[in-house]
Write a structure and sequence with these properties.
Order of helices and strands: EEEEEEEEEEEE
Shape: elongated
Radius of gyration: 15 Å
Number of helices: 0
Helix content: under 10%
Number of strands: 12
Distance between the termini: 38 Å
């Protein structure tokens, strides 16, 4: 099981980007998914989270600008980022608290999984 994040890039302030995180493998289900970010010289911080039923929460600094969503059929979580600011510049990571997957005809659980990160750079 792996989490593959993509969609980062360079954008001007006020622009938009959409990040994707695909859970790869023979996936049966995945629970709460969370986007985090880490700016240079700063600690990693939570950005947005979504449960498997679609309930979402946001950090105050992205409320009204970012939207988290998921497509369970595609094993994918998205982060739509609008009205980007230079202070949004960071490496964005996706996290899964629990993934159930199949291997050797048995369902297995894996916990606390991280994607590799995707860089978002917002210029002023």
């Amino acid at each position: 099981v792996q989490l593959q994040a993509s969609g980062g890039g360079m954008v001007q302030a006020g622009g938009s980007l959409t990040l994707s995180c695909v859970v790869t493998g023979r996936i049966r289900s995945f629970n709460t998914m969370t986007w985090y970010r880490q700016a240079p010289g700063k600690q990693r911080e939570e950005v947005a989270s979504i449960t498997n039923s679609g309930s979402s929460t946001y950090a105050d600094f992205v409320k009204g600008r970012f939207t988290i969503s998921r497509d369970n059929a595609k094993n994918t979580v998205y982060l739509q980022m609008n009205s980007l600011k230079p202070e949004d510049t960071a490496v964005y990571y996706c996290h899964a608290d629990r993934v159930q997957y199949g291997r050797d005809f048995i369902w297995h659980d894996d916990y606390d999984l991280w994607g590799q990160g995707t860089l978002v750079t917002v210029s002023s």
